[in-house]
Design goal:
The protein has 72 residues and is an alpha+beta fold. The chain contains two helices and four strands; from the N terminus they run E-H-E-E-H-E. It has a single domain, classed as Alpha-Beta Plaits (2-Layer Sandwich), CATH 3.30.70.20. Helix content is 21%, strand content 19%. It binds iron/sulfur cluster. Iron/sulfur cluster (SF4) binds next to helix 1. The site of iron/sulfur cluster has 14 residues, from helix 1. GO terms for molecular function: 3 iron, 4 sulfur cluster binding; metal ion binding. It comes from Streptomyces capoamus. InterPro entries: Fe-S_cluster_ET (IPR051269). Its cofactor is [3Fe-4S] cluster.
């Protein structure tokens, strides 16, 4: 799966870090970094994190890989 965080929106509330710490990290107080292509096993965590973000800064790709075509 793919995720994109709108870092202009992100206010560093860290809800996503709390819910999916393998995917989202806060460096210092405000600099969010994240894994843009997390394993599908993390989907539930990431969906929870996206739902919990107070400013809805996390966008999920719901296409389940079809975007990548048949690439091996
Ligand atoms: S929950 Fe939203 S606002 Fe908070 S750190 Fe994550 S992306 Fe940023």
């Amino acid at each position: 799966m793919r995720i994109v965080v709108d870092l202009n929106r992100c206010q560093g509330y860290a809800q996503c870090v709390y819910l999916a710490h393998e995917v989202f990290r806060l460096n210092g107080q405000e600099a969010l970094t994240y894994e843009p292509n997390p394993d599908d096993e993390r989907r539930l965590q990431v969906e929870r994190a996206a739902a919990a973000c107070p400013v809805q800064a996390i966008a999920l790709d719901r296409v389940d890989g079809t975007e990548r075509g048949e690439a091996s």
